[in-house]
Structure formats: structure tokens, C-alpha cells
């Protein structure tokens, strides 16, 4: 249970949060027309006759958009409705050419599901928590108005009209900004795993309507407000923080919270009234007579299920259980599609190169992928060419390290050169002298010289001063200019010192 | 040469193919009739050059010995509800005045592909809302018919009133119509021509200005049953651009025409015997039964118990859909824009739609908006949908007892222009026999039966099972062969 509370003058208040996330479906074509969905095109260049609502034009559902919504539903373990229907949501606005949005009010394609947010003590989430999902339905996006193109007129860009959105409606199960943030991040991660939405909040591919209410612990739900179109995790958390405190102030000053739609002002971090309940539209929803009910057959559902990738929770469990990674590493590596993608490619390349099972090299590869490699990349800044960061090159470095041919420090140095030049790691190790000496002869020679020069310390060591072992190691490494294989050095020293 | 404009679709097609006359001669003859019939106001736009162009293409094909198509060399009128590439399409409204589509409706494209040519865009009730063609922004269409001994102007029916007048007055051998709640059958009946509304989904709705999507269905209007069969074959077909299109092959209706009804049962629905129906209408119904019996059919009484609820349900469902379908006419992207000085978006909507829509269209938008609004939806729209289901079930049960249903098309003959001024509800009653088949999506046609005492034509309606256009056409043919109906209006225009 979240411990997040608003401390009011009259005591503690609990916050109740529900989110409606609009996620743009990844698909080349719009929900009901063949027009392209590419972001950032010139205004009104990706508009079909259907999108522009020319007379007599009819919508035809795009199977890929439906498929993505179903796969998303399956990824949140939701009930998939083999029979669903499209409804029209009627209202007038210049960015809505049809005068209605085709949506699904009465019979959504996806029913109840759920999503797990992980414990994060620091963020105030003491334990794992299941957040219920009420439904997912598909609907059309609207266009955009541009108010800065003309002194007295607004311009309309219809490129976005008709792009498929999934509206993912949570239950009011979240009780702190941190939980809401974790929910959005987790949902985003799942969508990206499934490939049904690119999750790009800056480009508006994902935006949230944030429902917030407050109540005294144990009491009934308070009146909620809905803040529209919030487009980052941070802003979602800010909205909740601001709205919860505002509502507590209103209530403690004897006022009532109005059920209303609000807008978030990014500049001030505050929300303000957009329209009150009295001004709420009557959307006159009714089944769209241009479209037949959507019926999904078993073959379609089976394909959707079988095409699902391993999902974040399962992957994380497998990383911990099968690969033996630490919970931290497992979580970090599975958070993003790109991260686990790089990791798994590198893991398989490294295991192949070394000739060991993945499990045996997983920790080494995880540490490399999470801290060593990004560290080198970061330290080089613009000097690094990310194109050189191939799995093959990195696997080659890790293999040399695994065999004891190079040290951890040398691995970093080699990787630096790889990132700058794209040269072959083994060639670098050879030609730049970045290899450990494992040649026992050379090491023995050096150790013999050190023992000879430090007879007093040898005596002390043999007399029981074990700590001096490190001194001999240091001296040997220094004599070998840091290139000696530490394991070999240790072994020889132990033999010689007795 | 005899007057080519007395010929129908089949005669023209076969005559052109056989070299009796050229397609150009046919097109010129009809173009001349169109030009000379301005008084009837059947056309919003005449396109004589389109008709000639299509005719020349057919003549050229014939010269090369190529296939001429199902409608090769037949010029037709196109109801101005079908979008035609490069030719103004208005739905007889001010709000779409001057709108020139950059696309061709599937149905019209199919017709051009079959070798037909376009004489022009036919007048209609505004957005196909009306039963008298009095709601057009471009003025009333007049029926070519007059009551015996009267000079009063009569309505040509609606909404396909331009189509019915054009065919009845020999301005076109055939025309497209659309039928939402009788808009093909009623005008056909009151002008003494033949028209069929096929099963919902047979003809693509793509590119047809929408009135009520779940009911709208295109069909042919022509001089006889055979011509309707030929033209329907050319119009119909699966269209992936219309989600409600029937994914079924188009039967060869013309080839399948057979007036022998031996073994067929024809149902007479007792609920269609309504008070206030003209005696002449009842007489025509009796004759229809005799004709069908004579053609070998067995006549059986049937019951369609929810008939009386069909009309009220229709006048909820159709306006509900229309109120939403017509929201796109907002002055933003095309068509009329009325932007008063200093006006904002809402003002622009209000001014544009106030100026752009006629009274009947506004009335239906208001009704539709009302029945869909919060608090009323269940009482009206949901109830109406239930009734629609019950009406459909009535028919399904009836098909256990009969193969076809025979009924009057309209409760009365053509009425005078302005006859229902100020009483839209009385006008709506004109659709009472037509609406049930629309709600159930069934194929239904009107064929001329006889003239009433005033010398005005009356039609008989045949309703068939889903997809059984053939059965409907065959029964129509049986009536046509026995009615001997060959009356045509005296030319006065």
C-alpha cells in the first residue's frame, strides 16, 4: 500500500488516480483509410478522401490496427472480445472532418486486464502492485489546429486525422504520483515490446488523460477531475501532485471539487479549467452504421497470440532465474526494448565466441552492457561512432577478457579504440600491445627479481604478515607494466613465496 | 427512323449492338429530349457532351468488333446523390452547390464500365429526404403526368423524383435511384415506371452521398422489368471500399428472367390493408393477386404483425443516422461556407448550416439529434432498433410460408404539388408500405399495375427474400406481362 498522503490542515488525504492512455497504433496506414501515418510530413499531405470526410466516403477497418490492439490486450492478460463494435462519438470541431469520431463505447475490443508495477522503495512504492485495466478500445485520432499562421484565422492540418489510437483505461487503482509514473512507464514498455505503439511521448504517440480525486482514508471516492492530453511521465506526476493539493485546498476551505475537464500548463506546472460538467458535450454515441460488427476468428486470435514476444515480466524472471542475473541487472536490462535487444544479441555472440553456454557468460555480458560499455561510450562523447559498437566487436573483447588475454582495463582501452576507429579488437590488442602477459617465464623472471630485491618483506610475509601479498602483486604488475595476467601472477607468487 | 427515345435499355443495347442505329444517334435523341424538358426540372445539370462521348466510345468499339458491355450505348440519368468525377454533385442542396468531386462513385463507375453514358445529374429531394421532390434546393421536379381533366402540377414522388420523371417523360431510358425508405419504389409507382431496390449491400454505397447508411441502397429505375434486371446487373457487385457491401457474385438476372411462377407462394400481408388506403389501390392489389395466380403462383395470407411500428421506427433510425452523416457539411473543407464578419468557428457552423440546409433536412437533423441525445437514446433509438429487429423477424417468419410478398407500393396515387404543405407527418405516411422492406434490407420492386380513375398510374410492390432479386424480378415480369400497362403521359412540357 502506498504511503503517499497529502498533509492537509484537517489531516491526511489519500489520492485516487485513474489514467486513460491514448497510444497511437504502430501501423503504416490509418484506422479506416489507406493514408500514411508518418510523423512530421507537410500539413495536409497525408489525407485521403475518407480522412477529409468527402461526401459518400466510407471507412474500412485496417486489419493491422485491429491486430495490434488485440496483441496489446493479450500482453496485459486481458479478455479479448471476439465480437466488438464501432460507435460514433458526435461533436463539431474543425479538426474533426466527419463531425464524429469513430470509437468503441459500448463494445470495446479488449476487456479487463492488468499490469504489474514493481516495488521501488526509493520512489515510494514499497512492494509490487497490480494495477487493473478496465478496457482497451480503438478509435480515430483527430487533426490539428494551427493558431499561429494567420492573424485572425486558424489553419487545419488533417494529417493526423484517422490515425488509429488505442485508449487504454486503467481502474482507479493508483494512489501516488510514483505509482502513476511507474504505470505509464510499464505500459509504455509493454507497448514497445509488443510493437503496437512506439511510445514516443514527445511526438504525441502516447498521451494520458489523468483522473484525480482525493478522499480521507477509508471514505468514499471524491469527485474527480480529468486533465487532458498530458504527454510525459514527469508531467503526469506533476499533474497529480498539483491536482491533489489543489483539491485538498478547495475541500479544506469549505469548497467542493467540480467534476470538470482541465488542461495542464507545462510552463507553470499547474492545471486550469477547460470545460465544466455543464458544458460537457452530449456526444450522442450510437453504433456506426457504415461498419459491421468486428468479429475475430480463432485463426486471427491464434496468430495474434503466437506473434507476441516474451514480455517484460517473463523476461525479467528468466534473466534472474535462468541467466542468474541480479534483480537489479535483470530489471535494468528488460526495461527497454533496445536495451534487452542489444543485450541478447551480445550475449549470444559472446557465448558463441567463447564456446560456453549463455548462462556462464551472462553476468559478465550484463555488467559490460549496463556499465562498462555505456561508460566508455559516454567518456568519449562525440569521438565515439555508435555504428562501431557492434555485437561482434564487443563479443570479441569479452572473449579475450574471458580467456585472460586482456584485463578489464585493457578491455576498456580496446573498446575506446574500436568506438573511435572501428578497427578489429584482436588486431588492436596485438598491435597496441594491449594484452596481458600470461607467459609464466616472463612473470617468473620479474617475480624472482622482486623477491631478490625485497628480502626483508619476504621474510615478514613468511613470518605471517599475509597482507604483504598485495605488495608483491603490485610490484609484479608494475614491473610487467600492468600487462601481466593477475591470475597467473597470483599463482606464481603463491608458489614462490610458499 | 422511329423515335429512339421510346426505346428502353434492352432495345437500345441490342439495337446498337445489331447496328440498327448508332449509340451517338441514341444519345443525341435523348439529349434533345432533356434540353426540351426544362419545365419538368428533372435535371440539375445536363451533361450532353458526356452522353455523346460515351456513345462515341461505344460506336468506336463496335467498329472494331469489341464487346460493348451490358449497357453498351445506353445513355442514362444519374441521380445527383452519386458523386461523379468532374461533374457537380449537390444532393440537391445549397450546401453542396458547386461541389465537384474528384472521384466517381462505385455504382456510376460500374455503369460507365458497362458502356452506359451520362445524360446529366438528376434532381431529387434534398439529401434524399422527401417523398415528393419538393425539398430540392434546385426547385421541384414536376411529374409528366396530369390528372384527367386537370392542369394541376403533380409530384413525381421522392426522393428519386428527377429519376422517375426523366424515365416516365422519355428523357432517359433509365436512371439510377437510391432507396432509403421507398425512394426508388414510391416515385416509380406514381410515375408508371419500374424500379427495384436490391438487397442491402448489393450495390456499393461508396461515393453515394449518405442519408441513412444502414438503409441506403442504390437501384435502377427503368421502363420495364427486363431493363431493371440488365441495369441492376451492371450496378451491383462487391466493393471492398464499402464494409457493408455483400461479398457475393452478381447473378445473371437478365438471363434468369422467367415469368412462370409455378410452385411459388406469394404472401399477402393482412396488416398492409390499412385504413385510408385508396380503393383503387386495393383494386390494383386484387388484380395483382389474380395475375400472379395466373402465372402459376399460390396466393397465401400472411401476417407481418409489427408493420404498424415500422414507420415510426424508420423515422427515428433514419434521422438519427442522418444527423450524424450530415455533420461533415460544416463549411470547413468544401461546399458552402457562411462566415459572418467577426465570426468564430461555432458561428460559422451555425450560419453555414442554417443557410445550406433546407427545412426538411433541418427537421430530420433535429429529430435525429434529439433521439440520440443523453436521456432519450434508450427511449427512442434503442426502442427503434428493437422494432427494426422485430420487423425483420416478421419477414423471416413469413418466408416459412411464402416465397414472395405482394403489396401496394403506395397508399395513394401522385398528389398535387404542395399537397402536404405544413404537414410533414402526413407526407411521411406515403412511405408506409415501402419502409418495412427497407428496415429488413430486403429486395423490393415496384411495377406499374394500372391507372386509377383519374388516369394516374399505380404500382404494385413485390418483396423478396434476402438475395432473391431474381424471384422479385420474375414476379414483376409476370405482372408486367399481364397488366398490359403501356400508358404514358401526354406531352405538355
Question: Describe it for me?
Answer:
The complex is a heterodimer of chains A (498) and B (493). By secondary structure, chain A is of the alpha+beta class. Chain A has helices at 63-75, 177-194, 233-252, 298-306, 312-321, 327-334, 337-354, 358-380, 391-402, 408-421, 425-431, 440-453, 455-462, 468-479, 486-497, and strands spanning 6-8, 11-24, 83-84, 87-90, 100-103, 113-117, 129-140, 144-146, 155-157, 164-170, 206-215, 225-230, 260-265, 270-276, 286-287, 294-295. In chain A, the strands form four sheets. In chain A, strands 1, 2, 6, 7, 10, 11, 12, 13 and 14 form a nine-stranded mixed β-sheet that branches. A three-stranded antiparallel β-sheet of chain A has the order 5-4-15, with no helix packed on it. In chain A, a hairpin with a 2-residue loop joins strand 1 (6-8) and strand 2 (11-24). With 493 residues, chain B is of the alpha/beta class. Chain B has an eight-stranded mixed β-sheet with strand order 4-6-5-10-11-9-7-8, with helices on both faces. A three-stranded mixed β-sheet of chain B has the order 1-3-2, sandwiched between helices. Chain B is globular. The A-B interface holds A 49, 52-61, 88, 90, 92-94, 97-100, 154, 156, 282, 284-286, 289-292 and B 82-83, 89, 91, 96, 99, 101-103, 105, 205-210, 212-214, 240-244, 320-321, 323-324, 326-328, 330, 332-334, 345-346, 349, 369, 372-374, 377, 381. Chain A: This is Aspartyl/glutamyl-tRNA(Asn/Gln) amidotransferase subunit B.
Task: Please count the helical segments of chain A.
Answer: 15
**How much helix is in the residues of chain A?**
25-40%
Distance between the termini of chain A: 59 Å
- List the chains of the largest interface with their residue counts: A-B, 30 and 44 residues
The largest pleated sheet of chain A is described as: 9 strands, mixed
Number of helices of chain B: 16
Structural class by SSE content of chain B: alpha/beta
Instruction: Give the N-to-C terminal Cα separation of chain B.
Output: 23 Å
* Radius of gyration over C-alpha positions of chain A, nearest whole angstrom: 30 Å
Order of neighbouring strands in the sheet with most strands of chain B:
4-6-5-10-11-9-7-8
Beta-strand level of the residues of chain A, as a percent range? 15-25%
Poorly predicted ranges of chain A (pLDDT <50, ≥5 residues)?
Answer: none
**Unreliable sequence segments of chain B:** none
